[in-house]
Amino acid sequence: MPIENRPLREQVKEELIRRLGRGTIPTDEPLNEGRLATELGVSRTPLREALISLEREGLITSERGKGFRFAPMSAQEFRDLTTIVATLESLALESSDPAQLAGLAPKLLEQARAFSAPQAPHDVIERYDDAWHALLLSGCPNARLMDLIASLKLTMHRYEQVALGDQDVLERSAEEHERIAECLVRGDVTQAVAALKENWNSGMDRILERLAP
Q: What is the pLDDT of residues 128-172, one digit of tens each?
């Protein structure tokens, strides 16, 4: 795990969420802290701090004598997360500099159209979506808001894996991104915010359809 100029526990926390999203951490058995610490190249202290932080957020559970384990996926948790992120991203878009949005609009539209092409590889959906939304909101001056959005979206990635590889899902997501960008090309931020909320709501519906009951 690369070391950055941030608290180690935060880096460990993000890496654990990434691994969960990629399906490389089992959710049906306790976490092996010793093995995880060795794999990540850190001591047990920052790892345990990260696990306790994830437990506070409801992503991890613990039992006396049984250690930590990731909580099972929950349709209600995903609904709650989607509602929060949609609201926060809408606020970030509304707070963005209109002039910067106008300058970004053509690039946002070009990227959305390129991704909807048949040759778009399935395994880049997560990176594409994160990068596109990051570009969309890059004019937001509220750094704390953007940090909160990024943290919540890391938690959501394990749910988004459910839809990974579905071409129909990729195409509809790209079409929704096109509508957001088209609104910005016209200078209509209000409609862009409405289209952004619809993108999140429809994405939530698509993933909930694929979640096991």
A: 888 999 999 999 999 999 989 988 887 787 777 665 555 666 677
DSSP secondary structure letters along the chain: ----SS-HHHHHHHHHHHHHHHT-S-SSS---HHHHHHHHT--HHHHHHHHHHHHHTTSEEEETTTEEEEPPP-HHHHHHHHHHHHHHHHHHHHHS-HHHHHHHHHHHHHHHHHHTSTT--GGGHHHHHHHHHHHHTTT---HHHHHHHHHHHHHHHHHHGGGTT-HHHHHHHHHHHHHHHHHHHTT-HHHHHHHHHHHHHHHHHHHHHHS--
Tokens of 147: 């940090």
The C-alpha atoms of residue 132 and residue 177 are separated, in whole angstroms, by 8
Structure-token match 């990540």, residue found: 40
Q: In angstroms, what CA-CA distances link 108 with 58, 99, 103, 111, 133? A: 34, 14, 10, 5, 9
Q: Are 51 and 60 within 8 A, CB to CB?
A: yes
CA distance 115 to 171: 8
89 to each of 142, 147, 200, how far by Cα in Å?
Answer: 11, 11, 10
The C-alpha atoms of residue 6 and residue 211 are separated, in whole angstroms, by: 35
